[in-house]
């Protein structure tokens, strides 16, 4: 009888250790997931803010009809760098999953290719370098 009591105690202790281990692992995963999500949020928010500020600045520049078209295009390209879009994009790429990174790249490329109002107003269907055609402000040919 002493062996059965000892065996039952050992088995109970082993089950307790395993169940505690499993619960701790699940809690650790949940905490890690929450931390990762929060880190992604903190890196994604500045990126979206930079995109919005650059877009607003490009919109403003595209309406300045007193500037020559070439100068407006150059200023629009510089605006992206001034607002740190690419720097914040690189920070996001370090934290984000591949799908989010691809969406961020697509957004930055669309922004870098020009403002729809500027391109439709001044280029129409004339086409741009690289075979991209913009018609009526739509981004035809973009991925």
UniProtKB/TrEMBL annotation:
It comes from the Bacteria. This is Uncharacterized protein. It comes from Streptomyces capitiformicae.
């Amino acid at each position: 009888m002493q062996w059965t009591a000892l065996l039952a105690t050992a088995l109970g202790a082993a089950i307790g250790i395993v169940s505690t281990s499993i619960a701790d692992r699940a809690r650790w995963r949940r905490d890690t997931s929450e931390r990762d999500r929060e880190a992604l949020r903190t890196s994604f928010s500045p990126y979206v803010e930079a995109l919005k500020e650059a877009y607003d600045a490009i919109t403003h520049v595209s309406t300045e009809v007193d500037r020559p078209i070439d100068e407006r295009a150059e200023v629009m390209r510089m605006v992206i760098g001034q607002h740190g879009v690419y720097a914040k994009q690189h920070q996001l790429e370090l934290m984000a999953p591949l799908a989010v990174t691809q969406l961020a790249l697509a957004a930055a490329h669309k922004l870098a290719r020009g403002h729809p109002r500027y391109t439709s107003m001044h280029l129409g269907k004339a086409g741009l370098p690289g075979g991209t055609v913009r018609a009526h402000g739509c981004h035809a040919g973009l991925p």
